[in-house]
Amino acid sequence: MVFAGALLFSGGALAAQGMPHVALLTTMGAIVIELDPVHAPLSVANFLRYVQEKTYDDTLFYRVAPGFVIQAGTYGADGKGRATHDPIPLEANNGLKNVRGALSMARNEEPMTAEAEFFIVLADNPGLDPNPNDTENKTGYAVFGHVVQGMDVVDDISRLTLGGTGPFGPAAPLIPVVINKALLLPATAPR
User: Fold this and answer.
1) If one looks up domain 36-184 in CATH, what number appears?
2) What pTM does this model have?
């Protein structure tokens, strides 16, 4: 519990900078993410809604693509999918880049299909950014935050042996990585 208290304290200090912070408390350690509601207000509001509804609690990092991304969102530790809300508009054309540590919304091929799935980028990947000529915001993946603490945990997850069973097949870690809790960290007044 000392660790959790230290995380909350340091996370609260981070949140004082004016951006919301969420801790993903996983079976491999904590990952703290700073969200960017200025550049991606719809994606941040969507993510926080799922955090507050506890949708991400007891879910898996079910897809690991080494050197690329780790992905989570709606699959419970039991392997079953979770209910989601309506998709949100794509906010990829917001000036934020899919660089190492970025938090982005996952979606299918259509631009307005992001729901609760998210991924953390393992290495700079401009191929995930919108096409420079896209004036209609129909390409790329929306970055809406970045890891500020626990990138070592992300890296540890990315190095796990893959080939699990169930709906995730060869991209699933053999030893499941569970997000025990997604926690919005309290903001504290500057000292």
Assistant:
1) 2.40.100.10
2) 0.89
